[in-house]
Amino acid sequence: MSKSKKENQKLSGLFGYGGKWAVVVMLKVIALLPFGCLYFLSDVLYLVIKDLVKYRNEVITDNLIHAFPEKSAGEILQLRNKFYRYFCDVSLESIKLYRLSEKELKKRVKFSGAEELNDLAEKRNGALLLAFHYNNWEWSGALQQELNCKLLMVYNKMRDNEPMDNFLKKARERWGGEAVQMGRAAKVSFRYFEQQQPVLVGLIADQRALASSPMWAVFMNREAAFFSGPVKIARKTNQPIFFQQAKRLGRGMYEYSYSLLVDKPAQTDDREILLRYIEKMEEVIKSNPEYYLWSHKRWKHKRPEGTALIQ
């Protein structure tokens, strides 16, 4: 590579990194806005992404058509627009988490079912919590304040954007939980388990897995790959698995509830655990579909030939 090309690459990287920091600074300013201003901004953003940008319009529409084949074109359009409106709210609420005060948190967030979760986690040396991209999943990290044990929040690191990754990590750990990269989740979980320190491992487990995953099942009328890690962790430790449901009570108001999904994973088939999780997700999504993350390319991969479908 020539000297000039190397210099151009360094210059591009410098400006690129600077640009990412500039975005984070802007997000920190947005996080300072009161909720009234935040939702005014959301209303403006809604018109921009719906009518001008048409953010992932084809992806969203295609996902909704497959998930709800019984709905008419008009109903799909209406549902897509409802999603756009909520997507703007939840995006700005996630930014607000960086500066959300404890007073605002207590006014806007409720928890139910944490008592059983605490009890079983203490008796069984920990527990596993399966959540998904429905309603405001970012604020659910405040569950740490209701727990008698440590909350590990498993996440995917943004490898090409360190400033943004640091911003999100700090926001997520605001209430005392520990954000752990997905690649380290099993190691950290087993370390707590071996030290007899109860820990709740929280995973947003509906993310798109690689096509090479051995776990494929039908989710919202389409074949989808799932990560096998959560099931492996639960079966090895035999810790109970809980399901998180987020209910929207109003704009910026949520209730997070927790129910036991699998009591003894070591005695439960891998496939049964996954199917129970999918069944609960579908039940919640169908009740208010606009609150699911339809812009995600969840069904991008195709099941490889020879990989069995769990059913």
From TrEMBL:
Origin organism of this chain? Answer: Draconibacterium sediminis
Q: Which UniProt keywords apply?
A: Acyltransferase, Cell inner membrane, Cell membrane, Membrane, Transferase, Transmembrane, Transmembrane helix
List GO terms (cellular component aspect): plasma membrane
Q: Name one GO molecular function term.
A: acyltransferase activity
**What does the record give as the organism's lineage?**
Bacteria, Pseudomonadati, Bacteroidota, Bacteroidia, Marinilabiliales
The residues that cross the membrane are 21-41
Task: Name the CDD domains for this protein.
Answer: LPLAT_LABLAT-like
- Extract the coiled-coil ranges from the record: none
Where on the tree of life does the source sit, at the highest rank?
Answer: Bacteria
* Record's protein name: Lipid A biosynthesis acyltransferase
> Where in the cell does this protein reside?
Cell inner membrane
Output the InterPro entries linked to this UniProt entry: LipA_acyltrans
Q: Check the record and name the Pfam families matching this protein.
A: Lip_A_acyltrans (PF03279)
Signal peptide bounds: none
Q: Name one GO biological process term.
A: glycolipid biosynthetic process
